[in-house]
Design goal:
The protein is α+β, with helices and mostly antiparallel strands and 183 residues long. The protein has one domain. Helices cover 26% and strands 9% of the residues. A 3-stranded mixed beta sheet has the order 1-3-2. Strand 2 and strand 3 form a beta hairpin. Bound molecules: zinc ion. Zinc ion binds next to helix 3. The site of zinc ion has 6 residues, from helix 3.
């Protein structure tokens, strides 16, 4: 489950089960974004804090079409290494619960689905759920090639190179992800 930052904190159903947020699975209607559209889902940091656009990739939900086909094998390897790095680099921008893939039967939460990836490219930043690999491997999802290239080239989020690439993507301004950061 992703908890929407548009809502006032934890949904009511979650408040009734305070000890195990991760076991709560409830689909939120706002977690679908068509690929290559503006993603205004995040409230921390707020869209107004960015000088560039956040562009959605891989926000799939049942009932919405998506591209399928083979993908560069380097993408899955890179996603596997980026996931824990983003988790440790930016814990404040992770969601507070797990998301269940609505394309699968059984509504089973995906591990690490609370993590989000911010991938810089020229002129904007891609934002993708960290378990986009599940859609690729489990549902033959094929993200746009430009995104694949950007992920493969993405520096480690804990590196100075990443911060510089994010700044370049954000029109020369330090990315708000680093607000208050000592990196
Ligand atoms: Zn699935």
């Amino acid at each position: 489950m992703r908890i929407c930052h548009l809502c006032s904190g934890v949904p009511k159903r979650s408040r009734q089960q305070p000890r195990s947020l991760k076991l709560i699975v409830r689909r939120h209607p706002l977690t679908y974004f068509q690929d290559m559209t503006v993603c205004d889902y995040f409230r921390v940091p707020a869209p107004s804090e960015w000088a560039c656009r956040l562009i959605a990739i891989g926000w799939l939900e049942s009932g919405h079409e998506f591209s399928t086909g083979p993908v560069d094998s380097r993408l899955l390897e890179k996603l596997a290494s980026l996931r824990p790095e983003f988790r440790s680099a930016f814990p404040a921008i992770s969601f507070r619960g797990l998301h269940a893939c609505s394309l699968c039967k059984g509504n089973v939460p995906l591990s690490d689905s609370h993590i989000n990836l911010f991938v810089p490219t020229i002129g904007f930043v891609y934002v993708a759920p960290a378990r986009i690999d599940h859609y690729i491997e489990g549902h033959r999802y094929a993200p746009p090639e430009h995104f694949v290239d950007a992920v493969i080239k993405c520096p480690s989020p804990t590196s100075a190179e990443y911060r510089a690439a994010m700044s370049a993507a954000n029109r020369g301004y330090d990315a708000p992800l680093f607000k208050g950061s000592s990196q």
